[in-house]
Amino acid sequence: MTALQKIISYEKVVDVVRGYFKSEGFHEVFTPILVPAPSCEPNLEVFETQLRTMTGKKRRGFLIMSPEFSIKKLLAQGIDSCFEITHCFRNEEEVSRQHNPEFTMLEWYRVGGNYFDVMKDCENLFTKILGKKMVYQGKEYDLSLPWPRISIEEVFEGKIPKQEDFSQKFYNEVEPKLTASGRPAFIYDYPKYQASLSKINSRGFAERFEIFLAGLELGNCFSELTDWKDQKTRFEKDLEERKTLNKTIYGLDADFIAALKNGLPEVAGIAVGVDRLVMLAADAPAISDVINFPASEIFKI
Amino acid sequence: MVNAGDIEKGMYLLFRGEPCVVASKEFMNPGKGSAIMRVKYKSLKNGNVVEYAHKTTESVEEADVDKVELTFSYIDGDNAIFIDSETYEQTPVPLSTLSGREVYLIPDLKCWVLLFEEKAIGIILPPNVVLTVTESQDAVAGNRVNAPKKEITVETGLKLQAPLFIKEGEKILISTADGSYVSRANQ
Predict the structure, then answer these.
(1) How far B48 CA lies from chain A's nearest CA (Å)?
(2) Global pTM?
(3) Most Cβ neighbours (<10 Å): which of A51, A52, B60, B166?
């Protein structure tokens, strides 16, 4: 695509996103990209920089891997249902068909909702963008509603793999079948060890889902954990795991924990890769086909 | 052995006991659990493509594939015969391993022949080859706007679309990646 075509495909997708959430009564929020304490996903590496004032004050600064912490602070202040479209950054990842170190994330939080409500948002929003039938890279996909909802127990036929084998088994045994089905799929109710920031339900599963379509993972949703003590323990464990994985070490965002103490409402939130949505909408094979100045070009890697 | 995290495109690896070339690879880092390397393996024996996700910490065995530069000579039954230009030793390459690419082979063309356990399992063609046009209809006047190309046939039987000005007997450059016309060959 030409630079202009890329801009137009992006613009169309973002316009639909804004239109959808405005009509649902969500606020659009804008939160910092440069932060003193980023989120703590153990496997993700962060971009670090330094903030220096004219008078010589120095602070560590990080580019966000997700706007989640800032948005949750706003939710604790009572902002109500909201969404943000922002740039996120991940270091030490491959620059590839699906990955650019800087990418556009859409996050939305439905206050009073759970992960099943967010599945409905996904269906409504994505069919507004992609239609009910989609052709991607020569293969036809049926996007008619409702989209299949398949639990992790079902996809693994009751034999849920151990934590260290989970991703490998998922990509070798499950994902090819999902792509071959020609349908999108919500994969939900993850094992506890994949809980991250989600609630654990009475059956011992994490209230979380991921959406897969055409071999792309489009988003990751949680019924958000509201218990601040539980959350703090999980973060501390994550930060500990970062040490063993030789990732950049930093402290826990104390303001974030304070906000959670203040009380996060019942809320379900999701992060969606906008670039991947645009790839599907524009039938483009790679992320570098939909963004101007991809890292592969400007950094020559 | 290669660490799956270090797999690169173009490497020769053994996958399920079969020599393969890495057609593409993608590193995936889920928020939790171990990172994985998704690899597209292309079998050197039959060209079939299989995708597999390795944990980045796994070891993968390298396929001991030798590359030798040989000259194509002729086709004999089910084999393409290649010759070492110094020793004149002949190496048969089964046509089944060429997946139809014998249409680019003309005598004296130099190619890389891939050997695994001393048997030829495939070839690497140069990116472009020069072939002579053997059939080319004269362009039909008035058909230039909608169909600025026409079908031609070259000496090996390959048919392709070429610009209207190409005539019988001309030498043209053809891409071996997709069999498309590149340009007139420089004489």
Answers:
(1) 16
(2) 0.80
(3) B60
pLDDT of B117: 85
What are the tokens at B184? 């007139």
Q: Hey, is the C-beta of A286 within 8 angstroms of any chain B C-beta? A: no
Alpha-carbon distance of B84 to B102, in angstroms, equals 18
Residue A168 to residue B32, Cβ atoms within 8 A:
no
B94-152 pLDDT per residue, tens: 888 887 889 999 999 999 999 988 888 889 999 999 999 999 887 665 555 666 788 89
Residue A102: which residues within 8 A CB-CB, separation 6 or more?
Answer: A87, A88, A89, A295
Residue B16's domain comprises: 2-60
Closest-CA distance of chain A to residue B49, Å? 13
Task: Report the half-sphere exposure of B155 (CA within 13 A, side-chain side).
Answer: 14
* Whether residues B28 and B54 fall in one domain: yes
Query: pLDDT per residue over B4-18, tens digit each?
Result: 989 999 899 999 999
- Quick one: which H or E segment has residue A230? helix A228-244
Which token pair is A49?
């920089």
CA distance B76 to A45: 57
For chain A, give the longest Cα–Cα distance.
Answer: 62
Listed by number, the residues of chain B in 102-141 with a beta carbon closer than 8 Å to a beta carbon of chain A are: none
Considering only CB atoms, B31 lies closest to which of A43, A165, A171, namely A43
Give me the pLDDT at residue A286, please: 94
Domain architecture of chain A: domains with CATH: 3-298 (3.30.930.10)
pLDDT over 80 (residue B180): yes
How many domains in chain B?
Answer: 3
- From CA A30, how far away is CA A267, in angstroms rounded? 19
Q: Which residues of chain A have pLDDT under 70?
A: none
Give the residue among A80, A121, A152 at the shortest CA–CA distance from A221.
A121
Phi and psi at A143, nearest 5°, equal -105, 15
| Statement to judge: residues B94 and B74 lie in one domain | yes
The CATH number linked to B117 is: 2.40.50.140
- The percentage of chain A sitting over the pLDDT mark of 90, rounded to a whole number, equals 85
Beta bridge pairs of residue A234: none
